[in-house]
Amino acid sequence: MIPLVIFSAALMAHSAPLLSRDFRLQNGLDAQKLNAKFKTLTNSTECTDGEQACIGVSFAQCVAGNFQLSPCSGGTICAALPLVNKAGTSITCDTASDVADRIAQTGATGGVDGSDPTPTTTSSPVANSTSDFLLQNGLDSQKLNTKFASLTADSPCSDDERACIGTATGLCLNGSFVVFPCSTGTVCAALPSLTEPGTFVTCDAPDDIKNRIDQTGATGGIDGSESSTSSVAASSPMASSSDFRLQNGLDAQRLNAQFATLDVSASCSDGEQACIGDAFAQCVAGSFGDDTLRWWSCLCCASACKQAGNEYSM
């Protein structure tokens, strides 16, 4: 996928409430200035090695004095975005509507590059008309981030597939992932769109990733595994039960998504338990071996025993 770069901005006040308001507005204005500048660039524009920008709808990085273009994934464009939780901006791929919305939320007017005379109306993450797809987007992002945690550069992939490999982005070319490191202070993650159904893979600051997923109503952080304190009063046993039952269901979904990426050659810790295919698996001597799988298949399912023949007795 596409790397991302952060530009520092000076903090403007010592008072906490004013500080937050000031840097968010300044972040929005700085993002607009960068986007206006990017509109004047072409791939023949002179640049300094390592410089990053947007050219057209593609991410661009300067190599040997020339911009090398990396197309954004379908439905997204390259743009400078304001950070949410600290001073600065980032360059990344996002949907056009998300770019406009994120800049508008800072209080900056004039759209993506400041030239739009029409005021932009910011979206509400909890609006009834969008709450259904927002939550699903958040859950889908968490599932993808759980899946990405199990991937390596050697994992099988389909051409043009995008994923996260460690903290870097990965693009599948000729059946193998090509890894693009994210810039300092950022990591790769699947993020939920806040304005339409869907997710996308990009680099962003960890705090911004968590904040964006939190806005969808999904709990548990970037991959859903973080423990969270329920906001429901303990005096309500029905509500309390509902909360942990939902969390249990989400936890089960994440585990099943992780299991779908495993095979008998997956590395494991002795005693670790998982599902591989339709079989229960337990790690013995660092391996989810075939023999272990068939034995546990018999314990879990009578039909599996028939398929295993007489090699194992019940």
Helix content: 25-40%
Radius of gyration: 23 Å
- SSE order in H/E notation? EHEEEEEHHEEEEEHHEEHH
* Shape by Cα distribution: globular
Task: Tell me the major beta sheet.
Answer: 3 strands, antiparallel
Q: Could you give the count of β-strands?
A: 13
Q: What are the segments in which pLDDT stays under 50 over at least 5 consecutive residues?
A: 1-19, 122-128, 229-242, 292-314
Structural class: alpha+beta
Terminus-to-terminus distance: 50 Å
Q: What's the number of structural domains?
A: 3
Q: What's the average pLDDT?
A: 75
Strand order of the largest sheet: 1-6-5
What percent strand?
A: 15-25%
- Discrete helix count: 7
Organism: Mycena indigotica
Keywords: Signal
Protein name: Carbohydrate-binding module family 19 domain-containing protein
Structural description of this entry:
Keywords: Signal. This is Carbohydrate-binding module family 19 domain-containing protein. It comes from Mycena indigotica. The chain has 314 residues and is an alpha+beta fold. The longest helix has 23 residues. The N and C termini lie far apart (50 Å). Strands 1-6-5 form a 3-stranded antiparallel beta sheet. The chain has 3 domains: 122 residues, no CATH class; 128 residues, no CATH class; 53 residues, no CATH class. It has 7 helices and 13 strands. The N terminus and C terminus are likely disordered.
